[in-house]
Design a protein that fits this description.
Layout lengths: L2 E2 L1 H4 L6 H5 L5 E6 L2 E6 L3 H20 L7 E5 L3 E3 L2 E3 L3 E5 L17 E5 L5 H14 L4 E6 L4 E8 L2 E9 L3 E2 L9 E2 H5 L4 H5 L5
Parallel strand pairs: 8-9
Antiparallel strand pairs: 1-3, 2-3, 4-7, 5-6, 7-8, 9-10, 10-11, 12-13
């Protein structure tokens, strides 16, 4: 669960300076003036984010065996009105991305990915997804690196629709990156316990 800091409990609206002053072993976000602090991700979380970035980077950023045309950032600070969020990964169509000289990104992304954990899943789903919707982020991916699942959400008329549910070693073409096939087993990086034991359901 997100940790509510003492600053927010005393009703002083949190600022970017509060984020800058956080210890290096935690991450923070500002929602409705409150500073939410989370521990740095554990190994399955970090590995899934890194591997997904590698998987998308060559075809969609560099244009190697793919269409190119995207910009990706890991854990960027992004301003959504008065909110400051840090998705695990975010992507913009290249023509929309504006790199700030300093400070948070001011342009809402076209795609975000949240890597879920027990401590952040409620925060990601209940607090952050509605903000992404209000600011017209078109796609959101929710990855659970322990259960090894991927939910693909598309925004339609302000509502999130589930357009894909995938797991384990599925080979998928998922919006908005359906131009390539993604082998989910490469995102997890290691075999899941049931796969290692050879008793995966058929």
């Amino acid at each position: 669960m997100a940790i509510l800091t003492s600053e927010s409990q005393t009703r002083r609206p949190a600022t970017l300076l509060d984020l800058d002053n956080l210890p290096e072993d935690v991450m923070g976000e500002i929602i409705d003036g409150e500073l939410y602090v989370h521990p740095r991700p554990d190994v399955p979380h970090a590995r899934a984010a890194f591997n997904l970035g590698l998987t998308l980077g060559n075809p969609f950023y560099r244009g190697v065996d793919g269409p190119g045309g995207w910009v990706f950032l890991p854990e960027p600070r992004i301003l959504f009105g008065e909110q400051t969020l840090c998705p695990d990964l975010a992507g913009w169509h290249q023509e929309r991305f504006v790199e700030p000289p300093k400070g948070p990104v001011l342009v809402s992304p076209d795609w975000v990915c949240e890597i879920l954990s027990r401590s952040t899943e409620r925060h990601d789903r209940i607090r952050k997804l509605p903000i992404y919707a209000r600011h017209e982020v078109r796609y959101a991916w929710l990855i659970d690196p322990v259960l090894r699942t991927l939910e693909v959400l598309r925004l339609e008329a302000g509502t999130w629709l589930i357009v894909g549910l995938h797991e384990k070693s599925d080979k998928i073409r998922a919006e908005p990156f359906e131009a390539i096939e993604i082998d989910l087993s490469q995102i997890w990086g290691v075999a899941s316990p049931d796969e290692e034991d050879g008793d995966e359901e058929s």
